[in-house]
Amino acid sequence: MRQGAVLPFAFTAAVLLFLTVPLVLCMLFAFTTGNASSLPVPGLGLRWFRALDANPQFWAALSVTAQVTVGCALASTLTGLLAAIGMTRMSTARAMSWLVVLSLPLMLPPLVLGLALLTFFTSVGLKPGVTATILAHLVFTLPFVTGVLYARLSTMDRAPVDAARDLGQSPFGAFRDVTLPALGPTLIGAMLIAMALSLDDFVITFFTTSRNTLSTLIWGMMRQSITPEINAIGTSIIAFSLSVTVIALRLTRYRG
Amino acid sequence: MRMPDAERAQLRREGLKTALLMAPAVIVFIGLFVAPLAWFFVQSFWRNATFRVVPDFQFGNYATAFRDYGGVLLRTLGTGLEVGGITTVLAFFFAYAVRFALGRAGPLILVIALTTLFGGYVVKVYAWRSLLGLDGILNGALMAAGLTDAPVEALLFNAGAVTVTLTHYLLPLAILPLYGALADMDETVIAAARDSGASAPRTMFDIVLPQIRPALIASFAMSFLLAAGDYVTPALVGSPGNAMYGNFIQSQFGLRMNTPLGAAMSFSLLGCCLLILATVWLVMRRVLRAR
Question: What pTM was computed for the model?
Answer without folding.
Answer: 0.86
